[in-house]
Amino acid sequence: MKMAAGEGPETKDTAIQLCSVRAGAGLYGIDTRAIREVLGNSVPQQVPLAPAHIAGVLTYRGEVLEAVSLRTLLGSGLHAGRDRVLVLEDSKIGERFGLMVDEVGGVVSVAENAIERNPIALNPRGEAFFDGVVQMKTCLMVRLDAKRMRPLELARSGLFGGDVKASHAGAG
User: Fold this and answer.
1) How far is residue 117's CA from residue 152's CA, in Å, rounded to a whole number?
2) Complete domains list, the chain, with CATH
3) CA dihedral 139, 76, 103, 132 (to 10 degrees)
4) Over the stretch 87-145, which tens digit does the pLDDT of each residue have?
5) Nearest Cα to 144, choosing from 58, 34, 46, 6?
6) Strand, helix or coil at 102?
């Protein structure tokens, strides 16, 4: 079994910084390079007829962002109401969106070679969003692929039904 950085002998492998987050009972990590900002408790404004994984919209520095519920994406129930929000940004295309999580932990430095491949027997949602696992001291941390959680990508994925126009509340 491979170890996370700081848990074993030093390696010359590249380290990746993951921000740890919780949604339901799961521990997840998101590459810090995708995170623009972490907001405190937020309550999104509901969007009528939006799919369940769109928790609503938030105002962020004069911009309206779609807020995606990680709990709902993973099939762990609806968002809890007042959640923490990670503002994620795809710098290549300049798209920003909010990812609602139950809790934001610290930043974990992980050796790239410590990230193991996804288990073979994943459900379709796990296959769509998971980008490997890391064995921590007390549990597994699942690395999430932030680009695959962008609202437009979710609409294109076909995992949630509906067409792209109906599933993308902020398209314009």
Assistant:
1) 26
2) 15-167 (2.40.50.180)
3) 40
4) 999 878 888 999 999 999 999 999 999 999 988 877 777 888 899 999 998 889 999 99
5) 34
6) coil
